[in-house]
Amino acid sequence: MRKCAGLALLAAGVLAGCSDSTQPPDRQATTIAELDGNSQQGLAASTLSAPLRVVVTDASGQPVAGVTVSWSVGACSGGVSAASSISDANGVAATTFTLGPVAGVQTVAAAASGLAGSPVSFTETAIMTVSGDSISVAAAVPIPANYGMHDTYVRDGLAFAFAWNTGVRIYDVGNGMAGGSPAAPVLVGSLVTSGSVDDPDPSVHNGWWFHNPVTQEARYLFIGQEGSGSIGTSSRGDIHVVDVSDLAHPVEVASFHHQPVNGQPAGVHNFWMDEEHAVLYAAYYNAGVVALDVSGTLSGDLSARVIAEIQPGGAGNTYTWGVMLAPDGSLYASDMLSGFWRLRLQNGSFSVLGGGNNVPERLTSDLWVHGGAAYTGTWGTRGANSGNQVKVWDISSGAPVGKTPVTIANVGTVSDLEVSADGSWMAVTTEYGGGAGLYLYSLADPLAPVLIASYPVADPAGGLHTGTIASINGRTYVFAARDPLPVGPAMMIFDVTDVVR
Amino acid sequence: MRFAALLALACCTRTLVAQTSDELNVGLAATPVFTHVLPAPGGAGAVNQVNLVAPWIMLDGSAYEGRLRLTSMVNFEGATIPDGVPTPGAWGEGFVDRRHPHTYAHEIILTASQPFAPEGGNGVSFAMGKGFAPFGSDDPMTRPFLAYPVNHHLAQILERLVAVAAVRVGPVTAEAGVFDGDEPTKPSDWPMLSRFGDSWSGRLTLTPVYGVELQGSYADVASPEHRDGGGLDQTKWSTSARAERATSAGRAYGLIEWARTVEGDGLFTYHSVLAEAALRGQRFGIAYRYERTERPEEQHAGEPFRTVRPQLDNSILGRTRWSIHTIDLDAAIADRWPGIRFAPFVEIAAGKITSLTPAGFDPMGFYGRDTFWSVSAGVRIAFGMRLHRMGRYGVALPAMPEMQGTPNMQMPDMGNHSEMH
Q1: CA of B227 to nearest chain A CA: how many angstroms apart?
Q2: Which of A125, A134, A292, B212 sits most deeply, having the most CB atoms within 10 A of its CB?
Q3: How many angstroms separate the CA atoms of A281 and A295, rounded?
Q4: B360 closest CB neighbour out of A199, A231, A432
Q5: What is the pLDDT of residues A156-203, one digit of tens each?
Q6: Is the dihedral of CA B297, B303, B304, B306 positive or negative?
């Protein structure tokens, strides 16, 4: 903040030194002073409602016209309508200020060479929400502190909370079956799934509730077990299939265990489904991407259901976090080591259509694809770089082309992101650092996200691990998994309707 | 002002107990130290810091002719080094490349002993309280170096609620203990009562000749890195040979140890080999340590010196091996003020980092280089009783040379040199 102000003053001084000062012959300007427009507050990246104005006077305090005043902005990425303006008959010179995109104090300096009081500093504040259009917390549902909660899947007014060794917990958040709502979720069922042959803990991490458009059934819930792993080397955990025909009494009916890869165990992470064709795509860390046929009745061992698999980055360079199927049939994959890939499953095998090895400086986390744009998160630390960026990709012409990323200040990990169904905004969850929390971006320009609101959590050692967008009874929510610190894990339900409408 | 009050308390206490048949001893210590470490994580140059480490008050007492003994230490590192002290390679309790502060209640143990005979040391004992599980080697605090070895969390189990039974017959001592598996994550943490008994360890010690110890130990520790209990379990092995004796050149000490921790039923394995030796004369001391230890590389919590606690999953970035040479030189200054001992020291360490899983963690990327060095210079200040040996209780605490009135008993120990003085 001080640095910003200092830079502004310095820049103003330099500019002032180069500017002309036109003095009326009968009045010698001696002083410049603030008139108004200081200490305003506005939404980041918006134009302040009132202009910034200074007044130029002579030794007797009379206004002096015709004096050039230079306006300069601190290192805040904001902008002024005019870099210089000339004082009018009242001695007033003015400009308007558009705040930079980052919340916090931002400065503008007005300078006139040789005048006392120069430069005049204006200190404005950019905020992330405006009154009445803020993110509100509809509910915070405590989750037993048994490693907490990792992910949420919301569909048909039901929220499936994947709560590690507490298992999966199913809440009515507007379905009607138990009278629940986002403000008052009602637990309707739960299940602790089994472990795997190489990891006995349930480690319930994520899931997908399969709605089969052919049979009209919504019978199976696929659950990912995230066992222990070493990035780039090994992982553990199976896919567990739960029959949720009776939501109050879910039953595990099948599982899939991946055999070791290059002598190392392989475990599952995030899912995506091609429901029309009954194909489950699973990111499988060091095993890459696996496609499973989940048509028909599922029971017992699903080893024979493998359609295809691929290590997009190759052995030793593959640790796939997530997958997502695009309407054109492309399967996009985010890989912690080898970046963002475009794949395709065709004739029983995967092929690489483009991308890969395109995020060498950071570890890649989650992904989302919408239209001609895609977004990937970043995780932890790679080299000297923190996972504080959202990578923006142009995928309109085939292979992903990286655009200017979004950097989020004071976070250590961008753990999850999701674009709204209409593509107009994006929810991003972050962890570890003073900025950890929920961020909402406008995608008016899909390749240049603009921050429109944020909701910080209180502790830099925690944050929000994942976020899922849901529309329930005409309102828009983000269901988020809150980390254990500072007050315990919870399923946070944010009402963002007023922000994104 | 507070330190002066503590000194006064210690003086009074020592005076009072001198008039009783049983012992009650108080000691105070602290070590102001300047540390320079190169490189800093993140490739941001060097770290230079001044810290006050190991500020502690120790109170030991005994009654019933030594059959009931209290062993205690309050450690104020939570106040003086809340962000740890720069130590290349150190890890654990959510810190990385900084040695974590100890908990305020570092050790509070009550031990009941019953000798088999008036002489000889044979007998049984039972210890309970907050302290060390019977596993591995002595706490680094009581050894000749300021910098803790990388293997601290592989070779010792401490700050737990423990119940330890021990029996000693001739040269053989057997110990078994149960405790809570959870590691503390901040100085104010206490062991989780609900987890007491979920972990156990045993140690067998052979003392073939006077001053020489051979030990082998095993531990089964439930979820040490996740306090609520959902984390990976560990099995740990340790074996070491320790020797200490008086020589014409001064007190000689040596330790060779091997330790191994297996986590997650074999998914992660960490090994350590360490050898250290010291020779301390009347005025000067020199100590050297070499260790080669593997450690986990964990997800950082938004800054280079902290890792995520509580852990959110059981994954790591990878494993690295730290090979470190450390040399410590110190001098003992004769009592300038009654009872207060000073020992200026300088300690230099240099080493190399090797990634065992380069895909997940590359030291060249994180540190900007794969070699490092550090230098620490400071003065150990102590008053009152000398630091007791940490890690053993009751009959498992063999009589060692320093207990036999060797000439160097008059040397001032400075907090972490108790065996050597």
Answers
A1: 9
A2: A292
A3: 13
A4: A231
A5: 999 999 999 999 999 999 999 999 999 999 999 999 999 999 888 999
A6: negative
The answer to whether the beta carbons of residues B89 and B326 sit under 8 Å apart is no
Judging contacts by C-beta atoms under 8 Å, the chain B residues touching residue A432 are 300-302, 308
Chain A contact for B366 (CB, 8 A cutoff): yes
Average pLDDT, chain A: 90
Instruction: Give B306's contacts in chain A (Cβ within 8 Å).
Output: 461
Of the pLDDT bands very low, low, confident and very high (cuts 50, 70, 90), residue B300 is: confident
- The A residues from 438 to 497 touching B (CB cutoff 8 Å) are 460-461, 465, 483-485
Q: What is the pTM of this model?
A: 0.81
pLDDT at B400 (0 to 100): 53
Q: Give the closest of B230, B308, B316 to A432, CB-based.
A: B308
Asked if the Cβ–Cβ distance from B302 to A410 is below 8 Å, we say yes
Residue A16: helix, strand or coil by DSSP? Answer: helix
Q: What would the pLDDT profile of B234-282 be if each residue is shown by its tens digit?
A: 999 999 999 999 999 999 999 999 999 999 888 899 999 999 999 999 8
A21 SS3 class: coil
Count of Cβ atoms closer than 10 Å to residue B70 Cβ: 16
Instruction: Closest CB to B315: pick one of A228, A337, A411.
Output: A228
Stretch among A373-377, B43-47, B366-370 having the lowest mean pLDDT: B43-47
Cβ atoms of residues B387 and B393 within 8 Å: no
Amino acid of residue B132: F
Interface of B with A in 57-86 (CB under 8 A): none
> What tokens does B28 get?
């105070």
Read off the tokens for A267.
């475990």
A165 CB neighbours in chain B (<8 A) are 230
pLDDT value at A146 more than 90: no
- Interface mutation target, options B308, B309, B356, B357, chain A, most CBs of A under 10 Å: B308
Q: Are strands B340-355 and B333-337 parallel, antiparallel or unpaired?
A: antiparallel
Shortest distance, CA A212 to any CA of chain B (angstroms): 32
Tokens read off for B24: 């009650």
> DSSP class of residue A91?
S
Measure CA B70 to chain center. Answer: 19
Give the CB-side neighbour count of residue A346, counting CA atoms within 13 A. Answer: 9
**ipTM surpassing 0.85, yes or no?**
no
Q: Please enumerate in sequence order all residues whose Cβ is within 8 A of that of A269, keeping only pairs 6 or more positions apart, or say none.
A: A205, A206, A224, A226, A235, A282, A283, A284, A285, A320, A321, A322
- A301 or B121, which is more confident: A301
Residue of A201, A228, A378 to mutate, testing the B interface (most B Cβ within 10 Å of its Cβ): A228
Residues of chain B neighbouring A460 (CB-CB closer than 8 A)? 301-302
For chain B, the structural domain boundaries read: 2-396
- Residues A179 and A157: beta-carbon distance below 8 Å: no
In the structure encoding, which two tokens stand for residue B102, read together?
Answer: 């100890």
Instruction: Give yes or no for a contact between A299 and A242, defined as CB atoms under 8 angstroms apart.
Output: no
Residues 223-282 of A with CB under 8 A from B: 226-236, 265
pLDDT category, B156, cuts 50, 70, 90? Answer: very high
B47-64 pLDDT, tens per residue?
Answer: 999 999 999 999 999 999
Grouping H, G, I as helix, E, B as strand and the rest as coil, residue B376 is strand
Q: Is B267 in contact with A230 (Cβ distance < 8 A)?
A: yes
Whether chain B has a CB inside 8 Å of the CB on A431: the answer is yes
Q: Which fold has domain B2-396?
A: Porin (2.40.160)
* Mean pLDDT of all residues in B174-200: 96
Whether the per-residue pLDDT at A462 is higher than 70: the answer is yes
CB A82 within 8 A of CB A72: no
Tokens 């997650």 -> residue: B264
pLDDT of res. A76: 73
